[in-house]
Write a structure and sequence with these properties.
This protein is α+β, with helices and mostly antiparallel strands. It folds into 2 domains: 8-189, Cytochrome Bc1 Complex, Chain A, domain 1 (2-Layer Sandwich); 212-411, Metalloenzyme, LuxS/M16 peptidase-like (Cytochrome Bc1 Complex, Chain A, domain 1, 2-Layer Sandwich). It has helices spanning 28-35, 45-54, 79-91, 97-114, 118-131, 144-148, 152-162, 178-189, 240-250, 257-265, 296-313, 317-330, 338-351, 356-359, 361-366, 370-380, 394-401; strands at 8-15, 58-63, 68-75, 169-174, 212-217, 223-231, 272-278, 283-292, 387-392, 406-411. It is globular, with a radius of gyration of 23 Å. It starts with 7 loop residues before the first strand and ends in a 6-residue tail after the last strand. InterPro entries: Metalloenz_LuxS/M16, MPP/UQCRC_Complex, Pept_M16_N, Peptidase_M16_C.
């Protein structure tokens, strides 16, 4: 994609090599993605850093739930210096063992510290709670015990098995001549022939059949951190835009119903929100907030009251119009920089939607009526069989939270999620 108003170039690359492929070696995808930066066949880690720093270029490699990726930004005039480095980071990493050991130790330190902050780990507990043994339940960073057992040979094996051109995509946005850039990229990446087969992730994920509670005990906690929700939607759901508008009212902005009731009107928390966390084949919906231990029940009941209000009363015209205006106003800033556009292009590739998302966004927002919003609410914002996750002092809140569903208790000091 060409953007003549920019003198920079942004690259976003995605490879279907995320945590869903970790199997019994949790954290391996993430560590492999990070290890791409530890040197290549032509450059040491130090040489890459020195050359990129000298010209003001930035780069990063990472892994998420489904994908591994690379992002980079550099001046257009430096493209012939940067592109060969980017190519080798993806296609010819050397996986230096000394650098691997350093990074592994950093990750272990981070994992050990993470459980001191419930908000840092509650997402991992939620995914495991919602997805169970499905690969979507895999924690991206792994756990202390799983990472402790990883060796550089594991990283090399994961790369060899899962990194290749099949199923991968590279998006480039900035100041360049399209024909010339295509020729350069084709020449560089045309030699990337690692014969991998993209592993399909099963799409059948059952909705909860009953209300359940996961209580994660943190004995020294003075507050309760919570998620309340259930099954959500995949990213390419045809109702994605309508869901976003409705969720804006419930918990998607500072003036949302949840934040008004839980923060402004009752003072139970400093913040409350709701969101749909989407993946390629599934997703979850949840209300997120925290409160003092003593006000756990009051906070949960208030959140449920707001959700019930949404279901029973729906949205009036003024509220719906306010949400529409907000969503339309927030949309352009999300896709105005080259980095954002490059990321959007790889999202379009992975989640299987096209430029109609951009071209029809406003019309879809404007087309949502009060009547249609009622259908969206009933279909996607159900309060049936809600799932509750609490991280807090179990001795003080177990009797309270057990009123919301069947309780499973875990200890935050335990290694797993």
């Amino acid at each position: 994609m060409i953007n003549r108003t920019q003198v920079t170039i942004n690259i976003a690359a995605v490879i279907p090599s995320g945590a869903v492929l970790d199997a019994d070696k949790k954290g391996l995808a993430s560590l492999t993605a990070k290890a791409l930066q530890f040197g290549t066949k032509s450059y040491t880690k130090a040489q890459i850093e020195e050359q990129m720093d000298f010209i003001g270029a930035s780069y990063n490699t990472y892994a998420g739930k489904e994908l591994a990726g690379l992002s980079a930004k550099f001046a257009a005039k430096h493209q012939d210096k940067v592109l060969p480095i980017i190519n080798e980071l993806l296609t010819a990493p050397s996986f230096n063992e000394e650098e691997f050991s350093k990074e592994k130790q950093r990750i272990l330190t981070q994992l050990e510290r993470a459980k001191e902050s419930p908000r840092s780990v509650i997402g991992n507990y939620w995914d495991n709670f919602m997805y169970g043994n499905h690969p979507y339940g895999n924690p991206v960073s792994g756990s202390v015990s799983s990472v402790q057992n990883l060796a550089v040979t594991d990283v090399k094996g994961f790369y060899s098995k899962n990194y290749g051109p099949n199923g991968a995509a590279i998006a480039i946005v900035g100041d360049f001549k399209a024909k010339e850039m295509k020729a350069k990229i084709s020449k560089l990446f045309g030699k990337w022939t690692n014969p991998v087969s993209a592993t399909a992730v099963a799409s059948t994920i059952e909705s909860p059949k009953e209300a359940r509670v996961l209580l994660v005990n943190k004995g020294d906690a003075r507050e309760t951190t919570m998620l309340i929700g259930g099954k959500g939607v995949s990213r390419n759901n045809p109702d994605f835009v309508a869901i976003e508008v409705v969720n804006t009212v419930l918990g998607g902005r500072f003036t949302s119903w949840l934040n008004d009731e839980l923060r402004v009107n009752s003072g139970l928390t400093y913040g409350a929100n709701s969101r749909f966390s989407t993946l390629k084949n599934s997703g979850t919906f949840y209300i997120s907030t925290f409160t003092a231990t003593a006000t756990t029940k009051a906070t949960v009941d208030k959140a449920l009251e707001v959700l019930k209000k949404l279901q029973e009363k729906g949205l009036d015209e003024a509220t719906l119009q306010s949400a529409k205006n907000y969503v339309k106003g927030q949309f352009p800033p999300d896709y105005e920089t080259p980095a954002q556009l490059a990321s959007l292009l790889t999202d379009m590739f992975w989640y299987n939607f096209n430029e109609d998302f951009i071209n029809t966004f406003e019309s879809k927002v404007d087309g949502l009526t009060v009547e249609k919003s009622k259908d969206i609410i009933q279909k996607y914002f159900s309060a049936n069989n809600l799932q509750f996750l609490f991280v807090g002092n179990a001795a003080e809140i177990k009797n309270v939270v057990s009123t919301y569903g069947k309780v499973t208790e875990k200890q935050i000091k335990e290694d797993s999620f």
